[in-house]
Structures are given as structure tokens and as C-alpha cells.
Design goal:
Length: 154
């Protein structure tokens, strides 16, 4: 069941959307904000609240890669692996990040601080290579800059 707060936040958004289906992504984001990730129970809770089938919500959650269907760390790093970032050193940076964090892509560090995920273009190709941590964009990256950025999150 949705918590009182989740329910209130979802209800506050209803008038921004033409119908409940259109609201589904926003509702999943709200549940994720509160629970850290979206469990099967979370899918069922949102489906019940919006009177949609769980499979519809599952489809939205699968399509949108910022909805996490398994536990993630305190901070989620999205490393762009699209063409401009590839050309500008993606592989070197991926190597650096995986070594620094002790994880592969799709994994969470042992201290539960970071989950590292690949992501398609983050929309700042002219400043490649690019990554996001939570909602913050970081661009024109190199290994030194990554170290400085990670230090801010520790
Ligand atoms: Fe990486 Fe566009 S290709 S931000």
C-alpha cells in the first residue's frame, strides 16, 4: 500500500497529466524517491492507486532506465556510452570508474555508496565525456576530474 506521503505527492500531480496512465512514470519516481528502488510491491501499489494493470506499470519501469527495479547505492552514476563520449574517451573513464569503485557496470560498490550504470546520450555531447550522479551533470571529464567529483560524494 502507498504511504500517506506517497499518496499525497501522487495526488498533487494528478492535475498536471491528462490521465492516470500519463501519470504513471511520475508516480513510480515518487515511490522510488521514498523507497530507494521500485519493488514488485511498489509496482502493485502504484497500479492499484492509478487503477492500471501492474503489467502496464512494469512496461513503463522497464522502458525508463531511471526507474530502478533492483536495489541501488546511495548515489547512482550514469556514464554516457553514446558516440561522442565514446570518441572522447568513454572506455578510459569507464575503466577508471570501475577500478576506483571496485565494481563493473550495473553493480553497486561494497560500501553501498555508488551504483554505476551505462546510459545513452545525456544531451551534452559538445562537452563529452559526460556522466551524471543523481541529478547532477558532470562534463569534459578526465580521470582527475572524476576523482574530485567522487570525493564530493564520500
Ligand atoms: Fe555522451 Fe551525448 S554522447 S552526452
Amino acid at each position: 500500500m502507498l504511504s500517506k506521503q506517497e499518496k499525497q505527492q501522487i495526488e498533487a500531480k494528478v492535475h498536471h497529466y491528462p490521465n492516470k496512465r500519463a501519470l504513471s512514470l511520475e508516480a513510480l519516481k515518487i515511490v522510488q524517491e521514498h523507497r530507494g528502488w521500485v519493488t514488485d510491491e511498489g509496482i502493485a501499489d502504484v497500479a492499484e492507486a492509478l487503477q492500471l494493470r501492474p503489467a502496464e506499470l512494469e512496461g513503463v519501469a522497464t522502458f525508463y532506465n531511471m526507474i530502478f527495479r533492483k536495489p541501488v547505492g546511495k548515489h547512482v552514476i550514469l556514464l554516457c556510452d553514446s558516440v561522442s563520449c565514446w570518441i572522447m574517451g568513454y572506455e578510459r573513464l569507464r575503466e577508471h570508474l570501475t577500478t576506483r569503485l571496485g565494481v563493473g557496470l550495473g553493480e553497486t560498490s561494497v560500501d553501498q555508496q555508488f551504483t554505476l550504470l551505462p546510459n545513452v546520450c545525456l544531451g551534452a555531447c559538445d562537452h563529452a565525456p559526460v556522466m551524471m550522479i543523481d541529478n547532477a551533470h558532470y562534463q569534459d571529464l578526465d580521470a582527475g576530474k572524476i576523482d574530485e567529483i567522487l570525493a564530493m560524494y564520500r
